[in-house]
Structures are given as C-alpha cells and as structure tokens.
Amino acid sequence: DEEIQETELRKRVKYHVQRDVLDELSVDKVAEKSDFKIPLKDKFKDAVRCTGPKFKSCFFSVIPLLSWLPQYPLRENIVGDLISGISVGIMHLPQGMAYALLAAVPPVFGLYSSFYPILIYFIFGTSKHISVGTYAVMSVMIGSVTERMAPDSDFMLPGNDTNSTIIDTFSRDAERVKIAATVTFLSGIFQLLLGLVRFGFVVTYLSEPLVRAYTTAAAIHVIVSQLKYTFGINSNRYSGPLSLIYTILEICSLLGETNIGTLVVSIVTIVGLVIAKELSALAAKKIPIPIPVELIAIIIATVASWQIDLKTKYKVEVVGEIPSGLQAPVLPAFSLLGSMIGDAFALAVVGYGIAISLGRIFALKYAYKVDSNQELIALGLSNSVGGTFQCFAISCSMSRSMVQVSTGGKSQVAGAVSAVVILVILLKIGELFEELPKAVLAAIIYVNLHGMMKQFGDICSLWKTNKVDMVVWVMTLILTLLLNPDLGLAASIAFSILTVVFRTQLPKYSLLGQVPGTDIYKPVEDYNQVKQIPGLVIFRSSATLYFANAEMYTDALYEKTGVDVAKLLSHKKKLEAKRLRKEKKAAKKAKKEAKKRAKEAANVEANGNVHELSVKKQINVFTVEAGSGPDTDSALPEAIILDLSPVNFLDTVGVKTLRNIYKDYGEAGVEVYLCGCQRGVIESMEKGDFFNEKVTKSILFSSVHDAVLYCQEGNNKELCFSNQIFILLFIPLFIIFLVLKTNLFFLI
If you placed Cys at 513, which of 285, 524, 711, 721 could pair as Cys (CB 3.0 to 4.6 Å)? Predict the structure, then answer.
C-alpha cells in the first residue's frame, strides 16, 4: 500500500520550467562561470604553513590515543572492555602458537606477535573494534619466505650412522626467526611510508570478491602446509609457482610413513573441536561470554600428552621449549632486505587490505570513521617495531574481532587488556605448554578456517548478481593457488584491473529517443514507447572515451547511424575525380576536333571547293554528377547529437576522435552537437585545440533536450525562410495575373 501511495504521489507531482535553449556559452554567461584557480605556489604554502590549531589537529591525528583516552567513558565501557579483552587474550594463546607453525618459527614467537604489535596499535590505531595480531594468511606468507630462504637442506648434519643425516633445528629456527623478523620490519616500513604519503587509497584496488577469493586460496595453502603435522610425516616445503601441487604430491607419496599416534591425536582434536564449537554456538544465547574452546582443547591435550608421554612412546611431535619472559630488541638483518622486497610489499598490502576492510565494516555499523592513512601508519609501526622484537607480520582476525564485539568491547582498551593477558602467559604460564602436540595446533587451524571455506558459496551468489565479479573470484583463487600468495596477489590485482579495462572497451552503445511529452531521453531498444526524433540521431556510449575504445566508438556511431561517413566521403571524392578526368578527356577531344575542322576549312578555302565543307555538331563535354551511384545522401540525418554525460575524462585520442567525427560529418553536410559535457571534459577539449574560429562552444549543450530543441528551431527557421521566399515570388505574379485578367475582361 505504501508503495502504491508513493507511486501515485509521484504521478501527481509535476513541474514546469520555461527558459531559453542554452548552449555552453550561454550557460557560462548566465551562471557567471568562474575561472579562479588557486595557484600551485599558494597551495604549497598553505600545506607547509604551521599554525597552532593545525599542529594540534595533526598531532592528535597521528596519535589518536591522546584524543579519545581522556574522554573515555569509564563507567559505561570499562566492564565490557575488560571481559572482551580477557576473552580475546585467551584466544590469542592457541592462535598465536598455531599460526607460528604456519610462519615456520617456534610457537613462542607467535605469542610475542600477539603482544608487542597490539600495544602499538592501541596507541596509533583508529578502529575501535578490530583485534590485531597473528593471522593465518599473513603467517603462511611469512612461512613461504622463511622456508624459501632457510630450507631444511641448509641445516643438515651427519648423524650417528654412516649414511644418515639430522637437521640442526636450533640453527634453522634461529635463522628463520631472523628472516621473519626482517621481512616483517620491511613490510612495516612500506606501510609507514605509504601512510605518510597519504597512499591509503591503494586498498581500493582490492575489491571484495578479490579479497574473499584470496583469503580462501590462502586458507587452502594453510591447510596443505599443516598436513605434515596431522600425519606426522617429514615433508619438504616448496616455494614459488606450483609449490602447492608439489607439496600435495610429496605428502601423498609419504602417506605410507604416517605416524598413527599423531593421526589419532589430530582426528580426536578435530572432532572434539567441531562438536564443542557447535555446542558453544547453541549455548551462546544463554551465556554472554563465549566458551574458550581452543584454550580448553590445548589444556586437555597438554595434560594428556604429559600423562601418556606421547613424545616418547608414540613419537608425537610436541611444541618443545617455551622460554619465559621477554626478549631484548634486535636489529633486523639488513643484508637480507634486498632479497625480500617483493614479499614485504605483498605482506604490507595484504595486511592493510584485510585490516581496513574489516575496520570499515565495524565503523559503518557503529557510526564512526576510520582513517585509512592513519591505519597504514598504525600497522606500519606495529610491524616495524614488532620486527625488532622478533615478531612476524600481523593483521586483524575476523574471529577475534567478532568475539571482541560480541563480548561487549567498545574500544581498543579491550586490545590492551588482551595484551596484558598475553604478557602474563609469557612471564608465568607459557612453559606449561611445552608438551602440547603440534597436531593439536594444526587441528585448531583447520577448525578456525572453516569459515573461509564457506566463502566458496560466493561463486553461486556472484553468478546471479555479477558474472564479471564471479570471474574475478575464480581467477583470483586459481592464480593464488598456482602462483603462491605473493605472486598470486599481484596477478589477481592485474587481472581485476584488466576486467575494468575490458568493460570500458566493450560498453553499450545506444540510440536515444524521447519519452513522449517529456524532456527525458532513453535508449530506443529498451523501451517500446520511446521513438527517435525524425531527422536527428542521438548517440550515447555507457563508458568514457579514451584511447582504448576510441576506434570502437567511431565504428559504433557509423553502425548506429547506418552511414559510414568515411566511405561516403571516399566515394564522393572518387566520383569527383572521375568527373574531372572525363571532362578533361572530352575537352582534349573537342580541341583535336576543332583543329581538324580548322585544317579542313583551310584546305577547302585554298581549293575553292566551298560546298564540300562539312558542318559537324559540337561535341558536348561529359559531366558526371557527384551524387551518381547509390543515393547515400537521402540516408543522412540532418544532425547528430552526441550525449557525453557518461564521459568523465578525455585524453588526446578522445579529443582527436571527436574532432574527426565533427569534421567528417560536417563535410557530408551533417551538423554535430555535443551535450552533457563535464567541466573537465570541456577543459580537455580546449587544451586539445578542439575549438577554433569555426568550431565554438555554441555546439555544446547542457542537456540532450536543449540540443534537440536547437536543431528543431534551426529547421523551422529554414522552413520559414523558404516560405517567405515563396510568398515574395508568388504575390507579384498573382498581382500581374489579376491585372491581365481584368484588362482582358474590359477588352471583351
């Protein structure tokens, strides 16, 4: 009923505007166009000028903590933030240790990565609800770097037997920690620099389908990388393109060496976690605080491993030594920076893209603003400072963020509380988990990734809504799986941008007609009641006009108008040339005939035989009409109106294309008018020398209807002029006829 009433109300609302037809020159005059522009010198002075309020605003924007913490509503938020912080801190323990396995570093460094970066983000971040820390996608990207630059083969030592070798795990882990910290430090520097130059818009190139497909593919990389812990086998980890396939093939070849004890631990843990999470979801409506399923799982697994002695009896690999306390900062290995620039930049972009995407979701939901550039700076400082404390790259986690919000978290105070929880674990509790089986951590990763696996459902939904986005999703998944997360990201962004280019190269070209009784013009092929205006062609492209589609724009115009002006002009030139050749040939033949007759006349006169002089007819000069052949002129419209309202910029090729269209149709006797031009488009035409003494802005109109009325007014003026000439000639003849008729009557 409301929709029907709204429709009826719209039908009753009418408007009537009476004004003159305005071209661009008239609009500039009426609206008093301003050409004032702030000089670049003044802009630079204003940018570098430092005033008290400006300095204060800049200082608080760089350190947001100083602006919101003094105004923190303690009574309203403190309880929720405390409960939320403790809940998220408990989640950090199993996730930090599990994701450290993905990064190929000892589990304790996952706890470090859940402490230092959180404190930095607490000071410099602008999102109130995201939970930064270890993240599966970032960890697997770090792991690909560490295992590529420090493979097991570089740390082989001779064993007790003659032909046996063992891995120096202590040296290997130390080298991998150094590599992880260095690439994290470099990625933080990249984020910091991008934030300082206000480059936060780079995340716009990461569309939602691309990010979701990329995280899905990265989750598959994560799962494959953890299979060796599930089956208890010792497989190599490959890097580079097709490494995922090589890893799967090697794991399949080593399945015969599966450690049954490890496999049983994995299966029991996975089944237990799935059942516990389902029960926790059912109990969530009654219990305000989420049940820490992962924490309970690692406690039970640690106790069981210690009591049964899984490490000794069943050769189940355990976490091992977890040093208590914090470590002093260490400078990164600057000698390695050159070999990891691409990896660090990929980490910087992916980490920022995931954090800002989730941050904007919460900001929109809870009505506050997230500064994209400040987020870059906050993440950059978190990673660069964290790298000096031997952390690996961090981002934000969807699961932890959802827990932080659902348990009452209102600000980053909850993040600071979770960091305190991790600090207590590092100082006192961490060493209690030394007997924890790594298979349990792998099982925690599997269960936590089930949400990402659900993203495969995007394919069906995107197929119904936007097939191009569906293609981007599928190609991102394939490229990331085949090329690894770092190269896959670059290839996916390139493919996504190419789809935009292709869509501008293949726009929809339409002929517009008028909706009866209105000034609205719609594509003729889309509406039954929309008819073309006789003698006029109104042409529109759905995309901007630039070098990639300029030729197709012209071809489509020729096709829609039904006349290829280039061929028409070429045909006319050929006819003109043919006419000139025949005239020249006829004139030459006539000249020869005249000479022959003059010679005969001289001979006859000399012989005195005048009566034999033959009189010959004069040869006419052949003439060929320019329009002979097919009657192409009859198919030409009187005028063409180009609707440029979808065009948001013009390059030099676009300006040249419009100039050629105007020139070619003009030579064919067809007027061309442009309408809906934005100011930037007009400025590009001015700079491209489109306008001159003959072509002025009088061919530009603000709307299609203005251009149509102008063309119709011009035709009416021509018709009136013809009628005036007819009247001026007819009246004197009529008077003469009356006079003659009267005189004849009197004579009779």
Answer: 524
